[in-house]
Amino acid sequence: MVFTNWAKNQSGSPAEVRAPASVADVVRAVHDAAASGRRVRMVGTGHSFTGVALTDGIMLRPDALTGIRSQADDRVTVLAGTPLRALNELLGEHGLALANMGDITEQTVAGAIQTGTHGTGRDSGGLADQVAELELVLADGSVATASPGDDLFDAARVGLGALGVVTAVTFRVEPAFLLHNRRRKMALGEILDSLDELTSANEHLDFFWLPHTDACLVKTNNRHPGPASPPSAVKRWLENVFLENTVFGAACATGARFPGLIPRINVASAAALGDSESVDTSYKIFTARRDVRFLEMEYAVPRERLAQALRETRDLIDRMGWMITFPVEVRVTPPSDAWLSTAYGRASAYIACHIYRPTPNPAYFEGVEEIMVRLDGRPHWGKLHTRDAAYLAKVYPRFADFAALRDRLDPRRLFTNDYLNLVLG
What is the pTM of this model? Predict the structure, then answer.
């Protein structure tokens, strides 16, 4: 069996594939891997662009490890293989919701947490910051529960699967709420001059800059008392399916065949941007559909360096003459206390660069990465980058503590793979 990720840029051939349906099945797989000298990894849905999920040993597919295990007050325990889209619907049935989330919902809860998946928020952080407890199977086959106050809790919430196999996650949840979503077109220069005001005035700020133009699509989400005023089914389809996927996919394909047209395509796309607003269930506002396949690199920089990072990225694209179809996405989060969270200890801004999958441009990613590294950037664990443990140890204050805990819990490196050898040493 060959495992290939969503972007089709990572693949591997595990020696064995298992589909655990219980924690006991995971324990058995860990014992079997240790006894046979093999390694073991649990894979999610393949939405990482790096090789973080690959293994040449036993690959665990958690398709049967899904659903809500328990719910009490503001805590919901969910099994590790549950897709985020299913979790949203299950929480909605109970009148509950997560405080914040990213825009892709295909990932499993464990995969999303372990790689540090985040949305955008002034006050609320990524998924790892909403975790109240974590259950994982350690290298000796024991089942551990990591709770606040434990080093394991702060290390394992964004643990890359290096400390154990996550089998269940307990989230802090809250009563379901509505969000007022506003979409508007703004000039990049205008945004750069008002970043502090934009981030402080909105609970959730997300904007997309179209290279070769000065145009940005700015999305702000703020809680709303109601009533709901969701977009009509036709409008939802027009924006989320037809324009953002079908038409955009056609534009990318055209740009791939005729790169010289890309600036004009982007100018036309910018002209088509319009203002709109709606009030809807939180997860329907947070999330989006992404059908056009791409490659992505994303870096977190200190929030005060966002404007500089964006200006330098814009200038680099202009100077090098690269033809970039995909928008550059910008989000923000508050500080996190998860040791390997990209937002650990600092208010952070995220700059995500994408490229159409059929036309990779390594030089683009390398050039932007050089800017981000100069600004103390931290790469997203599930997105493309070239940083190694020596660099990462300099930008993560608790990196050495994580490494020491890993040495103690998994001295034989049962859970490692080539990617972890690069980023953790």
Answer: 0.97
